[in-house]
């Protein structure tokens, strides 16, 4: 599988990110939290809907108004191009996969599950296998270097998927235990079978006794009920007599109370009528005084009106004086007002002209800064070119000064070195083959020698008779041949060693040449040329902007002079505006004069009216309010007296009605007394019957309670008996259930053993270990270290074979350890992917490594061309030199953005 592009919309911190991937090594750079790892997670989400968030809704960008995200991934597998898209909102999800046929895409499947199944079919692996095979998580390389053998075995087992088998083995134990507990419970129940039968017999006997007691209680209840009915009939007759007696007596008491109330009303009414008569006499005395009150009120109102009108006269006179004052102010300051307005117009005109040059200072500053930044960038590119040229000359032992010279040298030198290395490999393999043949000959020669030492009369090969001389002669010939072969082997080993060293020199030289990136030099040279072009454009802009800034300064100076002159005129200008505004607020001068004349005429009329009222009342103005207050009190008293007198007629009518009611009630009371004497009611007998009835009723209730209690007890026993009978039936099913449980537990234990370390886990390790070892060996050989072989034992502990013989990881250098770890991880990936390794993704591969081992890993990655596509997420800038493509991720205001470098 090769990834071609990915498009993320509102996925985590990526609101709209489109990335095109190429083959080779692609580095995704950026700081912590910038959104680098989210790109790898988007690949996993698009393919298999796998992600690291607790809820899928957390993948949607926070603050996204649409509450919707999508990821589109285009990839190639087995020569066919596919496009998969997954969308997710807060409430729904969509997915589809398309295949490219000709120039257009056609849909293969839609829906989350169908798309996932289609991708599994295309890639021939599920999501977990894809992640373990292709995705190298943070710290995995360091773990394969630093962990103990047991820990490394656990890490590799997790990658192989053995962790899920171990988890299944552990998780089945509680299930087995649950069924064991169920079996034990059922066996415990079966042990109580005899006790259950005895309990049924006891409950049947108890039920018969309770039934007998219930029948006896039925007889007693019938006797008590007959006695209670007789007592109740006699009591009901006395209850009727008591009801009539109590009702008549209650009516008598009620009538007496009403009579007392009516006599009290009669007494109150007599007092009220006498009071009304006295108030009529008071009214006759007050009535002549009331007409004077109206004249006095008119006099008071006229005096108040005169004071109010005189205040209006004073106010209008003041306004007329202010109008004269403000007119004088306007005439004095009119010239200053006109000069001020003219200056303002001039300033507005100049400021309008100034807008044509606004921003020129900022633009000039930006261009100066941009010029400085361009110069610095050109300096960095120049330094980088010089540095690379210097390092490359040092590496190659040359003295080139031009990029073209390096490019020409590399193009001509690399094929020569490649051919030499190939020739070395051919010679080494030929010598090794000869060594192997010679060793085989020696092994074959050792056998007849051994046989000749024990056989004395026949040749062990041709079976012909031989004597001791001939036997010794044969042994001598074979031994000589073996010794000759050993000498040849030693000579060939020396030749292989010399050739290997020469090959290593050539391989190192080839590696050094491969590390020289001509494209980087060309890119930096292009940066220099682009910078020179930019500097010319910037200088032209600066000249234009300097002229604009000069003009802007002149305009600002003019504006400043005009504004200073405006400040001097402002006090007089404001006086004019204030006087003009005040004059407008005072109203029209002629209208004010007419209003004053009208008010003065009104004052004369009011004074004449006051004089007439004083003459009519004969009162002085000084005591006017006291006189009015006294007469108003008299008038209020008059009104109150009129209200009281108005009740006279109704009081007389009510007196007549009360006296008639008193006479009627006295007659009714006499009749009720006679009725009470005629009623015969025995209170003592009535009370005795009530007590007897309550006693009998309580006894009856007690008997019924006992009866109900026994019926309930009987019902409980019947329920218990039913349950016991059901249990007895169910015990037979328990016996069958116990047998089934035993068989099922045996099956579960068998299945659990299959998932154990000694079961399928062991089989998978045994099957995968040789494949991983072979793939690891192939990757490790491509790193060109002086080792002839690499082995993995059953615990995946690594042993390497080199010039010094057999070595474990603790005996080799840090760089060689990193090479082994990387080869092992790639070997696992190759095994899991079924040998078709086209893509690998590494998330922070240098994390947890010290500086030396980090550099070693970077050097190895620089030399890797064994995998068609490698995507590396890192914040380690040292990896940039290893990249064919660099993507830089930054986060601004919570939004991740990606740019190519």
From the structure above, extract its key features:
flat; Helix Hairpins; six-stranded antiparallel beta sheet; 901 residues; alpha/beta; Zn_hook_RAD50; 19 helices; Rossmann fold; six-stranded mixed beta sheet
Give an overview in words.
With 901 residues, the chain is of the alpha/beta class. Among the domains are: 2-160 and 759-797 and 808-900, P-loop containing nucleotide triphosphate hydrolases (Rossmann fold, 3-Layer(aba) Sandwich); 402-516, Orthogonal Bundle (Helix Hairpins). The protein has helices at 37-48, 112-123, 127-134, 140-146, 149-159, 162-190, 193-286, 291-354, 360-396, 403-454, 468-515, 518-585, 589-617, 624-645, 648-678, 683-755, 760-781, 814-832, 851-862, and strands at residues 2-11, 14-20, 24-29, 68-77, 80-89, 93-101, 104-110, 135-136, 789-792, 798-802, 805-808, 839-843, 869-874, 885-892, 895-900. A six-stranded antiparallel β-sheet has the order 2-1-4-5-6-7, with helices on one face. A six-stranded mixed β-sheet has the order 8-12-13-3-14-15. A three-stranded antiparallel β-sheet has the order 9-10-11. A hairpin with a 2-residue loop joins strand 14 and strand 15. Helix 3 runs antiparallel to helix 18 and helix 18 packs across helix 19 (851-862). The radius of gyration is 61 Å and the shape is flat.
């Amino acid at each position: 599988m090769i990834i071609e592009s990915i498009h993320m919309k509102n996925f985590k911190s990526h609101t709209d990110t489109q990335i095109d991937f190429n083959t080779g090594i692609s580095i995704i750079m950026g700081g912590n939290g910038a959104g680098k790892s989210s790109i790898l997670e988007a690949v996993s989400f698009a393919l298999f809907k796998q992600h690291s968030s607790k809820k899928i809704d957390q993948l949607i960008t926070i603050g996204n108004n649409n509450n919707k995200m999508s990821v589109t991934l285009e990839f190639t597998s087995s020569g066919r191009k596919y496009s998969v898209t997954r969308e997710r909102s807060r409430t729904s999800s969509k997915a589809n996969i398309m295949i490219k046929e000709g120039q257009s895409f056609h849909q293969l499947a839609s829906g989350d599950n169908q798309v996932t199944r289609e991708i599994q079919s295309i890639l021939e692996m599920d999501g977990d296998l894809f992640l373990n095979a292709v995705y190298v998580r943070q710290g995995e390389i360091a773990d394969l270097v630093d962990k103990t053998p047991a820990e490394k075995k656990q890490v590799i087992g997790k990658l192989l998927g053995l962790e899920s088998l171990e988890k299944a083995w552990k998780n089945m134990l509680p299930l087995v235990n649950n069924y064991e507990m169920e079996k034990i419970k059922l066996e415990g129940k079966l042990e109580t079978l005899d006790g259950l039968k005895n309990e049924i017999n006891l409950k049947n006997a108890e039920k018969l006794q309770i039934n007998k007691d219930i029948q006896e209680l039925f007889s007693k209840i019938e006797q008590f009920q007959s006695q209670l009915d007789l007592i109740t009939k006699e009591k009901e007759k006395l209850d009727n007599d008591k009801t009539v007696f109590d009702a008549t007596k209650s009516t008598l008491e009620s009538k007496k109370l009403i009579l007392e109330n009516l006599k009290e009303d009669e007494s109150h009414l007599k007092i009220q009528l006498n009071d009304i008569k006295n108030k009529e006499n008071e009214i006759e005395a007050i009535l002549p005084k009331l007409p004077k009150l109206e004249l006095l009120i008119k006099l008071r109102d006229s005096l108040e009106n005169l004071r109010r009108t005189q205040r209006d006269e004073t106010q209008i006179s003041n306004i007329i004086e202010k109008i004269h004052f403000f007119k004088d102010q306007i005439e004095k300051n009119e010239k200053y007002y006109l000069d001020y307005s003219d200056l303002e117009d001039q300033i507005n005109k100049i400021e309008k002209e100034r807008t044509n040059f606004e921003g020129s200072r900022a633009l000039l500053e930006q261009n100066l800064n941009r010029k400085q930044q361009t110069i610095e960038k050109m300096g960095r590119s120049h330094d980088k070119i010089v540095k690379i040229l210097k390092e490359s000359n040092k590496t190659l032992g040359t003295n080139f000064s031009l990029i073209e010279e390096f490019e020409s040298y590399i193009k001509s030198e690399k094929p020569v070195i490649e051919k030499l290395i190939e020739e070395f490999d051919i010679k080494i393999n030929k010598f090794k083959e000869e060594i192997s043949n010679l060793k085989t000959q020696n092994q074959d020669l050792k056998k007849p020698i051994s046989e000749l030492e024990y056989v004395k009369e026949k040749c062990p090969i041709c079976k012909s008779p031989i004597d001791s001389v001939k036997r010794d002669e044969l042994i001598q010939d074979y031994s000589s041949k073996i010794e000759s072969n050993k000498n040849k082997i030693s000579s060939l080993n020396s030749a292989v060693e010399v050739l290997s060293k020469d090959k290593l020199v050539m391989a190192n030289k080839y590696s050094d040449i491969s590390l020289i990136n001509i494209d980087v030099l060309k890119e930096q040279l292009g940066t220099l040329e682009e910078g020179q072009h930019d500097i010319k454009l910037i200088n032209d802009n600066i000249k234009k902007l300097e002229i604009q800034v000069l003009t802007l300064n002149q305009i600002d100076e003019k504006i400043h002079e005009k504004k200073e002159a405006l400040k001097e005129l402002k006090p007089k200008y404001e006086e004019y505006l204030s006087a003009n505004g005040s004059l407008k607020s005072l109203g029209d001068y002629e209208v004010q004069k007419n209003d004053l004349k009208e008010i003065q005429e009104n004052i004369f009329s009011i004074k004449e009216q006051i004089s007439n009222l004083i003459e009519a009342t004969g009162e002085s103005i000084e005591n006017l309010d006291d006189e009015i207050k006294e007469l108003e009190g008299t008038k209020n008293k008059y009104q109150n007296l009129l209200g009281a007198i108005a009740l006279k007629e109704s009081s007389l009518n009510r007196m007549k009605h009360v006296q008639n009611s008193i006479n009627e009630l006295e007659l009714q009371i006499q009749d009720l007394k006679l009725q009470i004497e005629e009623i015969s009611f025995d209170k003592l007998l009535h009370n005795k019957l009530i007590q007897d009835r309550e006693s009998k009723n309580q006894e009856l209730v007690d008997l019924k309670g006992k009866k109900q209690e026994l019926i309930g007890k009987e019902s409980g026993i019947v329920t218990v008996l039913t349950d016991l009978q059901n249990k007895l039936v169910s015990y037979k099913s328990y016996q069958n259930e116990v047998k089934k449980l035993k068989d099922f537990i045996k099956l579960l234990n068998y299945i659990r053993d299959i998932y154990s370390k000694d079961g399928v886990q062991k089989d998978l390790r045994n099957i995968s270990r040789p494949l991983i070892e072979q793939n690891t060996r192939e990757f490790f050989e491509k790193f060109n270290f002086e080792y002839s072989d690499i082995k993995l034992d059953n615990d995946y502990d690594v042993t390497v074979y080199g010039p010094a013989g057999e070595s474990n990881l603790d005996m080799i250098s840090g760089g060689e350890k990193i090479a082994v770890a990387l080869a092992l991880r790639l070997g696992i990936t190759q095994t899991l992917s079924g040998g078709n390794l086209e893509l690998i993704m590494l998330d922070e591969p240098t994390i947890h490594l010290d500086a030396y081992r980090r550099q070693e890993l970077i050097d190895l990655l620089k030399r890797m061309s064994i995998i068609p596509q490698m995507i590396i997420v890192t914040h380690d800038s040292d990896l940039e030199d290893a990249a064919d493509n660099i993507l830089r991720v930054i986060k601004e205001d919570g939004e991740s953005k990606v740019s190519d470098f």
